[in-house]
Amino acid sequence: MSADGVAVTAALERVLAATEAAQGELDRLDAIAGDGDHGVTMVLGWRAVVAALAEASAPSPGAALRRAAEAFASVGGSAGPLWGTALLRAGRSLGDAQAFDLAGLADATEAAVQGMRDRGRCRDGDRTVVDAMAPAAAALRAGARDGDLREGLRAAAAAAAAGADATAWLEPRRGRAARAPERARGEADAGARACAVFWAAAACPG
Question: What's the pTM?
Fold first, then answer.
C-alpha cells in the first residue's frame, strides 16, 4: 500500500481538525511552565498549511510537505521553525516521487526527527517534541519490514502517545520548563502532546 499527494493533504486536514480540538489541552500544558500559547500556535500553523495546500492542485507528497513547511514556518515562535524544518526535511526525503510506501515514510520521519534535533538543539530525553516524534519514527522503521502503511501509522500513533506521556517524568533541559522543572513534573510536555495529536490524526482513515 502507498500514499500520494492527495492522501498527504487529507491527512494534514485531519491534523488541523484534531489540533483545533486539542488546543485547550495544549495551551494548558504550555502554561504550566511557559506562556500558554502552544495550542494557538499549532492551530495557526496547521491552518496555514491547509490553506497553502488548497491553493494548488494536489502535488507529489514531497512537494506537499515542502509547501507545508514554508507555510508552517511563517507562524513564527519556536514551533514554527521547528515544525517547518521537520516538514521540509521530510519533503526533501520523499523527493518528487508520486507516492510513498511505509519504508519511504519511515525515511521521511527519521529525517524530520533529525531536523527537529538540529533546529531545536535538543536530544532525545530532553523533554521536547522529539520525545514523541522519535518513537513514532522508530515504530515506522520497525513496521517497514511488513510494509503495511495503515498498521505502521497506527503503531507510530501509539508510540508517539506513549512518548508524550513519558515526558511527564523527564527532566526538562530545553525551553522555559528547564528553568522551573518542579512545575512541569507530572505533566506531559505540550510539544510532545501536539506531536501525539499529529500522529493520531495521520493514522485515522478519516
Answer: 0.93
Q: Where are the alpha helices (DSSP H) in the chain?
A: 5-31, 38-54, 61-73, 79-94, 102-120, 130-143, 149-166, 181-184, 190-203
* Class of domain 5-203 (CATH, top level): mainly alpha
Residue 78: which of 47, 110, 113, 34 has the closest Cα? 34
* The C-alpha cell that represents 149 in the structure block: 502503511
Burial track 157-172 (b if 16+ CB lie within 10 A, e otherwise): bbbbbebbebbbebeb
DSSP tag of 171: P
| CA–CA separation, 32 and 40 (whole Å) | 15
Task: Please say if the pLDDT value at position 69 is more than 70.
Answer: yes
* Structure-block grid coordinates of residue 76: 513564527
State pLDDT tens for residues 8-22. 999 999 999 999 999
Grid cell digits, residue 189: 510536555
